[in-house]
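User: Can you predict the 3D structure for this chain?
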Amino acid sequence: MDRLIPLHLQEIIFSSSTPGLSRAISKLYHEGKLIKIAPKIFTPDLTEDPAKIIRRNAFKIIGHLYPGIQLSHRSALEFKPTSSENLFLTYTFERKVKLPGLTLNIMKGKPMIEGDYPFTASLNVSGQERAILENLQESRKTGPDSKTLPLPELEEKLEKIVQIRGEDGLNELRDKARQIAGELNMQKEFIRLDKIIGALLNTKSTGVLSSPVAIARAFGNPYDSSRVSLFEKLFIQLQQQVFAYFPDANVSPKAFRNFAFYEAYFSNFIEGTKFKLEDAQRIIETGEPMLSRDEDSHDILGTYHLVSSREEMQITPSTPEELIRILKYRHQMMLAARPSKSPGQFKTQNNHAGDTEFVGHELVRGTLHAGFDFYRALQHPFAKAAYMMFFVSEVHPFADGNGRMARIMMNAELVKTGQTKIIIPTVFREDYIGALRLFTRQKNTDTYIRMLIRAQLFSDTLAGEDKEHIHDTLVRSNAFREGSEYVLKIVEPLKT
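Assistant: Here is the predicted structure, written as structure tokens:
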């Protein structure tokens, strides 16, 4: 209890043996200003569900009732009650304590050892190595009533350690676990841990593994499981929705190239490679870069050469390895003039945009494999295009050029099925980036899908063999505008 805070302002109040404090609590209780929500626990909150108050103050309550108790087993890894409202603890005796909204499963065991650490003034936590050994104990119960995590979840936590700390980090954990196993009488649990780590590092049989993520690691194809969960969420949303068809009106070679010019122009502009429209047009028409901007000019040319080829843009993958081959080939073509960007090679260092970390470089290939099945199962051209765009963008497989590559891969899905390709104009840049960011950080699929639907509606207005006619539509749509005061308009093309 915080002596500096008046009793009536504290959310929970513990009974006290101090005479003055005990009388004050008793007086408030009999005046109806406090209610008892559990043995020796009061609250001045007369309206909220006691279970919610208990859960919100769980660690404070536990430390007060059982000074020096230890959060252990799955609770030392999860730091929250299970879905069945169970917490698991280690203390000097064994007991089950039921509180409103919370069950304390107290097991008799060894007190704090080296590697364990204090969580509050009166509550300790099993260190990582000890907690993992505790979670390898046998449990008679299953699911949220079990003191141990399901084995696949534990394997995934170990696999995450390899991702973040590398093989040396996992070996270090094993060495520390070996040191404390005897002290805790958990030699049997350490033998299980040793086999799992050996399998993850491919030095022992993989037959002991049960998690798909861990098995993929053991077979040399590790992937980012959190990203694959995002891909699954997008797949479900795309599979459940009905999308319109937009047959491409740019069927002639000239019309296809006209659209491709603006596609390449805007795709580069959105990534910061900005040219005056007439300069970009001159570069593409002559095939000659601007002397003062050689690499930027080649970016425009490389993108245009890909998106203006109907033959190239009709190629889509049927296997994960085909996807990898197509990505590398197109990246090589697009950034051929930038050797410092490793054209055609996956990244060798992790990359990020702002505070968004993309898939780790060692997980790129495995994540492309793991997410491919969702792409393959989609049928509608727009659904496949929307999935592919986010898939490539979120993996971010290259050191540079990922946004352009994601949009090229998206539009290839549409070209193959004769649908209108999608352009993201300058004025729509913040909507586009914001929708991607919202999906990555908050798992909001709706905004992302609506954004692409609007972009295709706009793109469907850009058709014809007269480039000036298309340019007029773009101007009236605000396509070239920059600034939050402008919005993308969808206008009817002028009749010719």
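Residues 151-218 form one domain. The longest strand covers residues 102-108.
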